[in-house]
Design brief:
It is built from 15 helices and 33 strands. The protein is α/β, with parallel strands linked by helices. It folds into four domains: 172 residues, no CATH class; 142 residues, no CATH class; 102 residues, no CATH class; 221 residues, no CATH class.
Length: 718
Amino acid sequence: MRKLKLMQDMNRDEQKRAVEAALLLGFQSESALFPIAGIDGEITVPGSLEQCMRLWTPEKPGEITVETYEAASAHPGEIFHLDFRKECGLEGIFESGMFLKDENHDFLPDRLDVKIVLPEPADISVVTAACNLAFRLGMETTGINEPIIAEKGAGGNLIVFDGECQEEELSAAMYLERKEDAVLVHIQGSGANLEAFTAELCNSFPRVDSFRSLTDVMMDLTDDMIFRGADGQMAYLKACCDRERKTEENGNVEALTLYGSPRITGQQMEAFPEVTYLNYKSGRKVYEKRYELPWEVEVLEKILEEQIYPQLQEGDRLRIEGALSENRHIRLETAEKIRKQVQACGAEVETVSLLCAYKQGYSWVEEVILPMGKEKKPDRVEIYFKPFLPEGETEWVDENGATPSYHNLKADDPEKWYDLPIRYLQELYPIEDRISKEWGMERSRIEFRPYTDEMGDEKLTYLCRAYRDNKVCLEETYEAWCSERPYLDAYPQMGKVHPATGYLRVWKNEREVLCERIRTDVEAIWDLYQSEVLPDCRSYIEKKTGGKIRQEAQPFFHELLLDVTVSEPDERTGSREDMISSMDALHEDMYFAGSDYFKNYGVQTADVMLDAPGLILPKIHQGTGKPVFRVVLSEQLREKPCICRKEEVLYEEQERNTVSAKIDRVVWRKGAYEANNAMELEISVEGAEERVLAAYAELLEAGRLERTEDFRTLEALC
């Protein structure tokens, strides 16, 4: 990296131009190794301010081709500031806020609100230090509109060089002075110490590591001092234990319970073994309910036992078709059981076909079409699907039903369909891989097309037409079954969904004698979830809040556990990592539908969006037989972390605005530069108890806090 060349005998104007040149060079740089100026530099200081501008070589902006283009900076809006403290200290000098203003609210500083004042006279070390600071400030802003040098007596925010350190044991220092309408940063030191001190500041300050800065550390320290962070809770506990041991009357440390952060480690707990430790975020059961539902396989068998088998006579011929949301081996076992029952009645079974109700199109092609076509050896296949549209609608676009919505709060059309028109095409995936593998067919010979009205008005969902030598060698159709229901029972105006459902059809002697829908296990669970589980949770919230629903009162519960054991398809397709799994779909739908339920509940009830009611946790397990749905609602053990002596609360979390931690001074002690020692930080903490600060410092020095690595040297907590 090329450096700015400074001379020992520079006059006042040359020194100013050197600092301005450093600002412009920094403005164009994304990285640098400080110092960026010195007598060994290569870039000559410009002879005038006009020549300084030649150091700036902006790229030519590209032409804007969109006539309606508007820059985001033309529409600034308020942004949320992550730093919650009332005011920051020196940790903020190179970050957006104190000196670097973000006026167009794009999270990037765009104006410098600070000047550098050079002393008179200023030696080359002071100029080098000023160049370092100007360069670094230039790197941090996306806009410069005026010189950075100001004369003595100027107003506003200033960086001032004060000469030698006032304290003999220090070789260089930086401290903050706040005035009524300005902030002053004082730099002290001289010679090589000053140059190295500012270079070290500009190289690393305020970074702690690649991800954290000292601003993060100060915010964490503030949280510690309000009893929010794990380290702070340990400091409060130490202060509390020390006091308990000194108190003769109540000196019982064993009676203390810390309801603390889950981040408290076992090593930290060992420091106070008499204390009881509990995670304040852990759950306490409010209620548990267990539901056992009819198994769809047994429902199908019962229908046959009650409506078909008693009517069979010797010589009757049966054809049975149906769909169950089950793994293939269960459907095959059920089909074989039906076949034996029919034969035991003296009747003849022509076919028993039980497809998978979940993704019926895929199941139909894989289990029916592929075996039928294998001997015919087709060389091309067309699979037509009917667009999934409300009755009477024929036109659709790709965006139908696919408009993304994070909040899903629009509730003004009860006839709206959430399903995509290409739903039945999606339900075929990844059948192309299976056809290619089983029939040895190139993918280019497999086509998927929409079934149009011009092709006929037959009641079908899929049409499969296979060709050999341009002649049809196989043609079959299939009609998939689905049910219709509101997306949310409690808010039917949101629209409708159409989950896949099971069915049973029976033909006796070529005449259909039974056609009946069979509710799948997933549908049964879903009905229960909407009709009982969510309303029960809602009732708990209303009882807990007294019917006064407020957004800031969230979360209302710790966890809503939805533990489901169900017999459902959960199989690999043999194509990449793809699976046919209604269990995965159920897990996703239970979470998002529950989230949408509480969002709409908040809007409908109190005109607020409840997007954090508590943890909705589905746990889905594979089983066989009747589905079991276990619901456990738990509340948080404590609303806030606290230390208790029996039922008495000794300490608990405070509001963030009651405490503020910031860096007031950064120093180098004598010999620190030569010994390559780290800078020392002096931190002020306002609003915290002195004995808690003392306990924190003691634990920090002993290495018992998570923050230990954040502080290289801690000079004082005051």
